[in-house]
């Protein structure tokens, strides 16, 4: 099935049956393998600017995480999601791959690199952190409880607008705001509930020293969701780490300034 998406960019949409069920994804390009893992209020379409503009020289795949897009629900821990992502990657590629994880997807990417170090060639951690570490008995905090209530009770368009308001700096271009809001409005309750629980309960900080892949941490100086203060443990404990902070951007830099974001990605993935 082919999708003409909201950005006017074209990308084939595929699906694969894994042990837990179905995973849908977008794919474009040929060459260096890159797996994109979206955030809590994203889906595969979050990465359309990357799929289109980085296609020369790269085979890029962006998944709909379990419970997102057209993917079957599964997994409410970061480890469970990472194991599904590993199986997904191994169905597509035989050798090491590059993994780009944004926000929630960054936690999954980190756990992939710990569980299967030989699988991850280079790791990009975008606007993310090691998790809130509340433990499975600690329960979700009020912010996440409120978010799930909004997703359950509000019209999806309103939910999307609220998420975009929280993700983007004041004064963001209206067209960019609408793109981010429309993606968030596609959220499914079961996917967000599972992923939010995973983020709340995990603490990946003890794992960070075991990440062997060269790693790029991207932060944005207007990001209120995962600012540098939350990302700091990644810089402190991942052995082979680089850091780039993007000025003037919030929690969706891959859309807010795709040209700058792609330039940073390309430089790192090509060995810069």
Walk me through what this model shows.
This protein is α/β, with parallel strands linked by helices and about 270 residues long. The protein contains ten helices and nine strands. It has helices at about 50-55, 80-90, 105-115, 140-155, 155-165, 175-185, 190-200, 230-235, 255, 260-270, and strands spanning about 1-5, 10-15, 20-30, 30-35, 60-65, 95-100, 120-125, 215-220, 240-245. Helix 1 links the parallel strand 4 and strand 5 (about 60-65). It is globular. The termini are far apart. The model is unreliable at about 1-10 (pLDDT under 50).
Find the CATH superfamily.
Alpha/Beta hydrolase fold, catalytic domain
Number of helices: 10
The total beta strand count reads 9
- Give the fraction of residues assigned to helices: 25-40%
> Uncertain regions: pLDDT < 50 for 5+ in a row?
1-10
Rg over C-alpha atoms, rounded to the nearest angstrom:
17 Å
How are the SSEs placed, and which strands pair?
Blueprint: E1 2-4, E2 10-17, E3 22-28, E4 32-37, H1 48-53, E5 58-63, H2 78-92, E6 97-102, H3 104-115, E7 120-126, H4 142-153, H5 156-167, H6 174-184, H7 189-201, E8 215-220, H8 228-237, E9 241-246, H9 253-256, H10 258-269
